[in-house]
Design brief:
46% helix; alpha/beta; 10-stranded mixed sheet; D-Maltodextrin-Binding Protein, domain 2; 2 domains
């Protein structure tokens, strides 16, 4: 009996190993759907498109970027949570949905921890506070004086976005009442900002850096703990009177929960290789991204830590769950 038990166990282990190797060798068998939960033109979309073509070359299958905006990114995230766990549907996850959403929404259509298999945190990026040239302020002090004299508004990529919470937190700290104007994505928000329909925006660098360099938008502050290499002359919010202030966005790739581990390892390996390519790294850094490339385990742990962190920020900002 003991002999039979050991034989059965050995056969099971060999079968599992063979199955894993089979997944790794055969994957992918068709085009990969790379869901971006926001409209074209924003930082998530930019990051996905930079990586998709090179990822397709590495995997030998087309990688199709599928923009699914709406619900402040929650619609796209829900689609992937319910997709087949075979590695042919992945998502460009964003801090707003994975870490901030659980504290802003009474009921999310997905669980950011249970419904996904983390693959890697791609990058992080501070936001930049930019103003339309018609706004008579060149730093935070001048902005706060202006905001106390007359109504001032600021745009963001949505109610659950880092930009929204950054603005509300700054409102609380400075005693101002800047009015939040939410959009379905960064693209339309930037368009309206350039047109003067809104006055300010807390935006990712990739969405506004070119407009800053051309003089169409004026940077007032960056939201990270240190100045950005992309805009070294722009001071942080902390430098302008609010010590320890930091609000940094981050991005990562995830698959549906229960996606086979060999597939997760394959995707992780290819994505990390791409991040290390000189041309990819230079392009991302030029857009204000700071490359990370964590392991699936590190990314999963980081998501849990960020959920706890942003729960405190949401509470302090006064934002209410929807």
């Amino acid at each position: 009996m003991k002999h039979r038990w050991w034989v059965a166990a050995a056969v099971a282990c060999m079968a599992a190993l063979y199955c894993g190797q089979g997944w790794a060798q055969s994957y992918p068998t068709r085009p990969i759907r790379f869901v971006v939960p926001f409209a074209p033109g924003g930082s998530t979309d930019t990051l996905a498109r930079i990586l998709s073509q090179r990822l397709a070359e590495a995997l030998g299958q087309q990688v199709v970027v599928d923009n699914r905006p709406g619900g402040n990114g929650n619609i796209g995230m829900e689609i992937v949570a319910h997709a087949a766990p075979d590695g042919h549907t992945i998502v460009l996850g964003y801090i707003a949905n994975l870490a901030i959403g659980p504290s802003l929404y009474a009921k999310l259509p997905f669980d950011p921890v249970k419904d996904y298999a983390p693959i890697t945190q791609l990058a992080s990026s501070p936001n930049v506070l930019v103003a339309h040239p018609s706004v008579a302020a060149r730093n935070l002090h001048e902005l706060f004086v202006l905001a106390k004299e007359k109504p001032v508004n600021f745009a963001s990529a949505g109610v659950a976005s880092v930009g929204h919470l950054t603005g509300e937190l700054l409102n609380n700290l400075a005693g101002t009442r800047m009015v939040h104007v939410p959009y379905k994505g960064s693209g339309q928000a930037v368009t309206d900002l350039l047109g003067g329909h809104v006055q300010l925006m807390f935006s990712g660098f990739s969405s506004t850096l070119q407009h800053i360099k051309s003089g169409k938008l004026r940077p007032l502050a960056v939201t990270g703990s240190e100045r950005s290499a992309a805009l070294p002359g722009v001071p942080t919010i902390a430098e302008q009177g609010f010590p320890k202030f930091e609000a940094t966005a981050w991005y990562g790739v995830l698959a549906p929960a229960n996606t086979p581990k060999p597939v997760i390892r394959r995707l992780h390996g290819e994505l990390v290789k791409l991040l290390k390519l000189p041309d990819v790294g230079q392009r991302l850094e030029g857009l204000g991204f700071e490359i990370v490339g964590s392991t699936p385990e590190q990314f999963g742990a980081y998501i849990k830590t960020e959920i706890r962190k942003w729960a405190q920020v949401v509470k302090a900002s006064g934002a209410r769950p929807e």
